[in-house]
Amino acid sequence: MKNCGVKKSITLLFISTCLLLPLFSQSPPPEQNATEYEKRLIEISSQIQNLKKKIEQEEKKESSVLSRLNKIGLNKSLITKEISLYNTQLSRADKELSSLQKKIPELKNKLDREKASIEKILVTIYKFGKTNYFDFLLRVEDVGKLISENKHLVLLAHYQDNILSDYSDTLSELETAEKALESKKQEISQLIQKAEKKKQEYSGQEKNYNVLIAQIERNKEIHLKTLAELKDRAEQLQNLMKKLEREKIALPYPLVPLYEKKGKLSWPLSGKVVSRFGLHRHPRFNTLTQNNGIEISPQKNTIVKAIHPGRVAYADDFEGYGQVVIIDHGMTYYSLYGHCSDTWVKKGDIINAEQAIANIGDFGSLKGDTLYFEIRYKTKPLDPLQWLKRR
């Protein structure tokens, strides 16, 4: 009878511990492994910091029409990157949410199985006892001593302890998962709100751009000032081309010379030519401007592709032209892609024909979303329409 009472007391201690342990247990935080999401977030964060630095530098410059356009372009690029950051975080959070939603039912099923095992043990132990649990507990001064003196009780206590530990761990893990689920839902809601706010900021920058373009088109004084600034930037671009020609980047392998592809080159963008090579007369102010390239308005796709293999000689912002990519095709032939809102290559990259290199925008453009495209031999601009396939 004495042993039976001890067994009953162990059972009561077991039940009470089951109820108390979850209040103090904490499961360790899940391990965070490096994933593509983390790599992408680091990349976007770096791009955001670079854009912020460029905007700070632009703020220090003397105000001009082109600097205002450039600032709007930089702000739009920054907002686009921030939205991309939130969308990447949202994708990661959605994946984690889906994992938690799958994990919680599995934990609940596991908990039910462990609970059923515990109930079976309790029923078995109860069958061997006739003494009232609480009466026996009042009479026993040291239950631990009784357990230590009886080999069978020690084994029983150890077995119960293992079951109790598993049950407690599962219960704690379930509680942590449910809290994480609610936290993840809140995180997703906040990310959606942040992305929506950034979209509104982008609309504000679009409005600023349209207002400035309208002023350039309607106000002759602003128009003439813009032309003077564009002429100065064209001279700066000419200086850049001279510098690139002196550098003469070595290509890693022989290429088909660009001049052999004259009239056969693929278009960098599918769309309508809205500005041609050569002299242009303004219909309202009767002013003349020299266009060293063409401007293409996209039809469907906004992806810019390289017209010929080569090596990237330049990939950065250039005031008046937005983000610019210049590719050296060998034998002092170059192609230039401007008004890009985002570039996917860097200086020194080897480029294949028809490889995607950028996404167009209105960065530095006076005509909205367009691609500014040039072909040059040494520093001399050539008419791109004579080099591209006829359509």
CATH architecture of the largest domain: Up-down Bundle
CATH top-level class of the largest domain: Mainly Alpha
- Secondary-structure-based class equals alpha+beta
Give helix and strand order, one letter per element, not per position. Answer: HHHHHHHEEEEEEEEEEEE
Total number of distinct structural domains: 2
Task: State the end-to-end distance.
Answer: 102 Å
Number of strands: 12
The share of residues in extended strands comes to 15-25%
Cα shape? elongated
The mean pLDDT is 82
Number of helices: 7
Q: Tell me roughly what share of residues is in helical segments.
A: 55-70%
CATH topology title of the largest domain: Ferritin
Q: Radius of gyration from the CA trace?
A: 36 Å
Outline the low-pLDDT stretches: 1-34, 130-141, 143-154
| Major sheet characteristics | 10 strands, antiparallel
Structure overview:
- This protein is α+β, with helices and mostly antiparallel strands and 391 residues long.
- It folds into 2 domains: 2-216, Up-down Bundle (Ferritin), CATH 1.20.1260; 230-386, Glucose Permease (Domain IIA), CATH 2.70.70.
- It is 57% helix and 17% strand.
- The protein has helices at 2-24, 36-60, 65-127, 133-139, 143-149, 151-218, 220-247; strands at residues 271-275, 278-281, 288-291, 294-298, 303-305, 310-318, 322-328, 333-343, 350-351, 356-360, 371-377, 380-382.
- The strands form 2 sheets. Strands 1, 4, 5, 6, 7, 8, 9, 10, 11 and 12 form a 10-stranded antiparallel beta sheet that branches.
- A hairpin with a 2-residue loop joins strand 11 and strand 12 (380-382).
- Helix 1 (2-24) crosses helix 4 (133-139), helix 2 packs antiparallel against helix 3 (65-127) and helix 3 packs antiparallel against helix 6.
- Residues 1-34, 130-141 and 143-154 have low confidence and may be disordered.
